Amino acid sequence: MSHASDQYGLPIAGADAAAAAGYNAYVDEFLSYGADLRALFDVADKTPGAPLINAHAAALHLAFEGAEGWAAARAYLDRMERHIGDATARERLFCDAVRAWAARDFDAARAALDELTVRWPGDLCAIKWGQYHAFNLGDAGALLRFGERARIAHENRPYAHGMIAFALEQNHRLDEAEEEGLRASEIAIDDAWAHHAVAHVMETAGRARDGAQWLDHCAHTWDRKGVFIRDHNWWHAALFRLALGLNAEAISIFDRRLWGAWPEFPQEQIGAISMLWRLELRGADVGARWAPIVEQVRMRMDDHLLPFHDLHYLYALARAGTGAEADAFLAGMRRRAETTEDTTAAVWADVAAPAGEAIVSFLRDDRDAAAKTLRAIAPSLHRIGGSHAQRHVFEETIEACGAPSGLASGREL
Q1: Do 336 and 304 contact (CB within 8 A), yes or no?
Q2: Angle between helices 353-363 and 307-320 (to 10 degrees)
Q3: Do 246 and 239 meet the contact criterion of CB atoms below 8 Å apart?
Q4: pLDDT interval class at 342 (50, 70, 90)
């Protein structure tokens, strides 16, 4: 088989022209948050000798962020390893990242992608995957490093400026972030990640009415997107309603947009939990909406993949599951902290497990203990992953305990 190249002129070992076209289509879908990412699996199945394509197929399964994804990735990882000797140096670095990811060594995955994109900044897809890992690790500095590489190598390319915009916002450079997000939306009106970045700027700046109007203006482009960004941008739209005191509108968005598209998807579960958590902190009656979410969360009892996810699962179990389930899940988080051998061990032990204990205390009406623990770990909460806006719920929880947060701004969490 001849070796073809991708849309950036970078070679793809073991791929012919048809496989390269399929890979390029995947890259476009990935960068734009399109709804047809699964087409890559067929490309990989037809091209078992292309290690890079099979590594990306494995990455898509791992990005499901649940145990099922790890199991489904196995066949693609095996193909990747069988043909790794044919890979170029760039491709080997991407395969290194995916191998580390599958071993739950997320920091090593980010490091491999850091090296890859320093040497080959033309690989915009690798830059995007690098940002994915930087975000999950709570590493805002790395998020911006990847974004700056996108700026250097991909000026005016669709979807690159949305990547830069979100990185700038997470580093508190709000004016630049808004400018880049608006520019990205001019280059590609459907850049949903840029819409998201501008929404973050407006949320951080307390511009709830502007934010609601901005997302309402952009929303017509999301129906053609994948579940994650569609759900998540609607989550932000609901968050603006909460800030405006429009709880009923937020509940309406929840019912129409935040739950039911793909209940098995961890990100949908987390967004739904996060919204119900906030609604109840504001005194809203959410009725029976917890029940179907908890049924899905029960499938996550043994995952313990990402601390940000675990804290949301634990909240749902402690709020609407059983006391025994919540205790068992928290014990699993502690075991993860004790047994993990990668660089995230300290995050699990020093931040995630104490935050989990605080959640359980809060929902068992030991508000003093909850507030004390959350205040103590607040400066380190960024290490669990998630954005400032997503982690702000922990400050709201402290305030619901009747205690000051001790923080200048929850957006710094």
Answers
A1: yes
A2: 20
A3: no
A4: confident
